[in-house]
Every structure is written in structure tokens, then in C-alpha cells.
Amino acid sequence: MLAAASVVILLGWQFISRMWVKPPVSSTRERSDMLVKAGEHIQVNILNGSGVANIARTFTDFLRARQFDVVEMTNYKEKNVEHTFIIDQVSDTVAAQKIAYALGISPMRITHEPDSNAFVDAAVVIGKDYLTTSPMK
Fold first, then answer.
1. C-alpha 61: how far from chain center
2. pLDDT digits (tens, 9 = 90+) for 22-47
3. Count of alpha carbons within 13 Å of 134, Cβ hemisphere only?
4. What's the whole-model pTM score?
């Protein structure tokens, strides 16, 4: 009887948590302009700056499971990046914030570097603090 009550309480808490405390994030774009349509999936590159092998694969799998369109994963130009951050490449702050939310990264770690040649919305640069992000929990 106690075990059944515990299971009910646990499932109830998980439901409340998923619905109101930390709801899932949508991977679709909200804005619409000449280049993109609302409802398309957010495109992102994963760049490993942590110096830890294969960590980009973990981030890629995590975001793809949440319907983000991970276009490329590669190494960042530096291997000693302290903090994981996001580069907003098309000035779509909502898309960058959705990526940050999905990864458990503070929105303060979003940098804006518009690039007219960019073919993705944003890039995630993995830092040495990768253990504190959602893909590692």
C-alpha cells in the first residue's frame, strides 16, 4: 500500500514538474520573414570547445531528440572555453533562448553575432562546464 502511494506521488510530481515547473521547449521558429517560415525547426551547429572528446555527440543527440535540426557538429576554434554559450547568428533571439532553455544554459550566455552568410540560426559552443548542462543530467 505504501509503495503504491509512493508511486502515485512520484508520478504526480513528475506531471506537475513537466507541465508547470519546467515545461518542454518547442523546437519550432515563432517568427516568419522572407527567409524562414513560422513552424520550421530551429537549425543549430554544435561546436566543441571543451577539449573533451565525443561530447558534441551527446549534445547533438540531446537536441535532435527534442526535434532541433542539428546541421553540423565540429570542434570550436579554441579548446579551452570555460562556459558553454550560444551564438545567435540570424538575430532570432527567441530561437536562441529556446536552445538555451533546452540545454539548461542561462540566457545571459547568448551572444549576438549576426552573419549574413549563416545557414543556421545559432551555434552552441560547449565549454568545460558541460557537466552542468541538461544533456549531462
1. 11
2. 556 665 656 555 444 556 788 999 99
3. 17
4. 0.76
